[in-house]
């Protein structure tokens, strides 16, 4: 058919077009300022090279603009250091001072950078005194910080974004060239635009023999059913992907059976601009069972009448969905008997509880009162062994299991006291330390020690990680004290009363929690609701009692 098609997902080659994070250049040649945040556009942080012979208001304006736009900025004073810095960091944008020729030759520096292989997708802009000619690569001298900032934003959403797309396109074509699957791309007029080396190897054709030819000019195999091409074209015209078995004829006349997938690509105006076809030799037997099912349905569809073929289309759509096992209950008014049967099956009182469901529905609740808890310890009364275990709690390498052993599986209370004290939570909530201690003990008592993972040790581990990241300078600049306290409390209670089962299990088992929360975010809703319930149930544990609304 010329449209050979289908890709084998497990045999793919991934090429990365991005660059590793760069180290700072030597201070003798460049001054580098690096920012770790993400820009508003969602693109990677862009490295920028400023080449100015000396510091002035114009260079300072661009430095400020880079910081505000969240670009990683490097500054070079000489052409030599600029070239060396570019070879090391491969900047996306280079701004060169072209106002004074006595310091260095800006055009010669531009040619030197362009001579480097990695500069193909780099945008170079010259700062000039007057607009001698209208070019996007020239910026008329303006030291205003906002003018520099606006220039960077225009470059980011214009030239830089275009270069990113070109770079991504190059990476995609590199992946196509290295793919082991035969890939063919045709236009909306079924003119062949591209075939990859794997296609050439399998079919025996050279690229030059196929590019520009219509598919109908390529010899077809007689083994295909007469109406197969019409079936494929009908599917493609509807904008649907076609997948199935197709016999192709090689250049030497041999027939080859292939598992083919043809995907229409929608272009501007909603029209189909091209068809991407990928082929896998059918003799490869490593494939998922669902793929075999889809192939069988496709084969049956080819010889079926139109009503059956349309019904099978619907079957294929259902099989390809990601919610294959999610219940979809539809009302069938035309069949009252079906309604009665479905209604009876869904009535809780008329069905028998499963074993797991019985466990969840008959399990005794936890004791909520603080009177059942042992007398809480003061922060100053923590045993030396436990205090020594928590000495490095502000380190990422802190061993939570050592604390679990030292506290007899009660790490959350002790670590919570330590971390909450370090962040001044009691002062912020305006609650006594005794209330906080009682609250931590109550929360820990509602974690199930029988769970192998979702227990209080896990909660303490998450609390430690949260506190670690809250101490990072970049995070501290973005959060207020209320955000920090909220994050610490959320980490403490985020899995309280976890039953050790997933949301899907609870929903399928028809547990009381799933019914209560209507199968929607069951555990998440339960953790949050129970946390507030046990907190406000007793004033001795209510850490929010003295807070203003």
UniProtKB/TrEMBL annotation:
Residues 168-239 form the PAS domain. Pfam families: PAS, PDE8, PDE8A_N, PDEase_I. The active site is at 454 (proton donor). Gene3D superfamilies: 3'5'-cyclic nucleotide phosphodiesterase, catalytic domain (1.10.1300.10), 3.40.50.2300, PAS domain (3.30.450.20). Residues 16-41 are annotated as: Disordered. Zn(2+) 1 binds at residues 458, 494-495. CDD domains: HDc, PAS. It comes from the Eukaryota. Residues 378-549 form the PDEase domain. GO terms for molecular function: 3',5'-cyclic-nucleotide phosphodiesterase activity; metal ion binding. PROSITE patterns: PAS (PS50112), PDEASE_I_1 (PS00126), PDEASE_I_2 (PS51845). Its EC number is 3.1.4.-. Its cofactor is a divalent metal cation. Residues 26-39 have a biased composition (Polar residues). One of its GO terms (biological process) is regulation of DNA-templated transcription. Binds 2 divalent metal cations per subunit. Site 1 may preferentially bind zinc ions, while site 2 has a preference for magnesium and/or manganese ions. The keyword Ribonucleoprotein does not apply. SMART domains: PAS. Residues 16-25 have a biased composition (Basic and acidic residues). The keyword Coiled coil does not apply. Pathway: Purine metabolism; 3',5'-cyclic AMP degradation; AMP from 3',5'-cyclic AMP: step 1/1. Zn(2+) 2 binds at residue 495. PANTHER family: CYCLIC NUCLEOTIDE PHOSPHODIESTERASE. Belongs to the cyclic nucleotide phosphodiesterase family. PDE8 subfamily. This is Phosphodiesterase. It comes from Muraenolepis orangiensis.
């Amino acid at each position: 058919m010329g449209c050979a098609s289908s890709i084998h997902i497990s045999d793919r080659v991934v090429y990365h077009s991005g660059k590793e994070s760069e180290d700072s250049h030597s201070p003798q040649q460049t001054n580098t300022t690096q920012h770790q945040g993400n820009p508003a556009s969602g693109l990677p942080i862009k490295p920028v090279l400023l080449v100015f012979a000396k510091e002035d208001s114009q260079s300072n304006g661009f430095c400020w603009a880079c910081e505000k736009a969240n670009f990683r900025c490097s500054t070079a004073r000489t052409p030599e250091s600029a070239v060396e810095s570019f070879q090391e960091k491969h900047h996306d944008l280079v701004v060169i001072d072209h106002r004074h020729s006595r310091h260095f030759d800006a055009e010669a520096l531009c040619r030197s950078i362009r001579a480097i292989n990695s500069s193909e997708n780099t945008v170079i802009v010259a700062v000039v005194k007057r607009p001698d000619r209208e070019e996007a690569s020239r910026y008329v001298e303006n030291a205003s910080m906002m003018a520099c900032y606006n220039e960077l934003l225009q470059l980011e959403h214009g030239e830089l974004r275009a270069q990113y797309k070109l770079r991504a396109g190059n990476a995609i074509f590199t992946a196509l060239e290295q793919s082991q699957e035969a890939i063919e791309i045709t236009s909306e007029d079924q003119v062949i635009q591209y075939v990859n080396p794997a296609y050439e190897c399998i079919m025996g054709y050279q690229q030059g023999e196929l590019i520009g030819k219509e598919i109908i000019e390529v010899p077809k195999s007689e083994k295909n059913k007469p109406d197969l091409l019409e079936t494929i074209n009908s599917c493609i015209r509807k904008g649907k992907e076609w997948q199935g078995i197709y016999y192709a004829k090689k250049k030497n006349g041999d027939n080859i059976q292939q598992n083919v997938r043809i995907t229409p690509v929608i272009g501007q105006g909603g029209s189909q601009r091209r068809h991407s076809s990928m082929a896998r030799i059918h003799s490869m037997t490593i494939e998922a069972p669902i793929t075999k099912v889809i192939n069988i349905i496709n084969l049956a569809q080819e010889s079926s009448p139109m009503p059956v073929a349309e019904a099978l289309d619907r079957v294929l759509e259902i099989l390809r969905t990601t919610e294959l096992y999610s219940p979809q209950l539809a009302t069938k008014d035309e069949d009252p008997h079906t309604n009665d049967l479905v209604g009876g099956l869904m009535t809780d009182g008329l069905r028998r509880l499963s074993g797991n469901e019985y466990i969840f529905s008959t399990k005794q609740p936890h004791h909520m009162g603080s009177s059942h808890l042992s007398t809480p310890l003061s922060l100053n009364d923590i045993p030396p062994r436990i205090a020594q275990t928590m000495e490095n709690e502000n380190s990422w390498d802190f061993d939570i299991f050592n604390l679990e052993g030292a506290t007899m599986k009660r790490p959350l209370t002790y670590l919570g006291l330590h971390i909450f004290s370090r962040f001044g939570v009691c002062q912020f909530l305006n609650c006594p330390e005794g209330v906080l201690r009682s609250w931590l003990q109550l929360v820990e008592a509602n974690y199930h020690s029988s769970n192998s993972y979702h227990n209080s040790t896990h909660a303490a581990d998450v609390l430690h990680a949260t506190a670690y990241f809250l101490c990072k300078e970049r995070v501290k600049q973005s959060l207020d004290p209320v955000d920090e306290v909220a994050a610490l409390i959320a980490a403490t209670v985020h899995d309280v009363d976890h039953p050790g089962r997933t949301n899907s299990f609870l929903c399928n088992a028809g547990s009381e929690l799933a019914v209560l929360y209507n199968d929607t975010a069951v555990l998440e809703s339960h953790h949050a609701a129970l946390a507030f319930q046990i907190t406000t149930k007793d004033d001795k544990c209510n850490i929010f009692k003295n807070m203003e609304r």
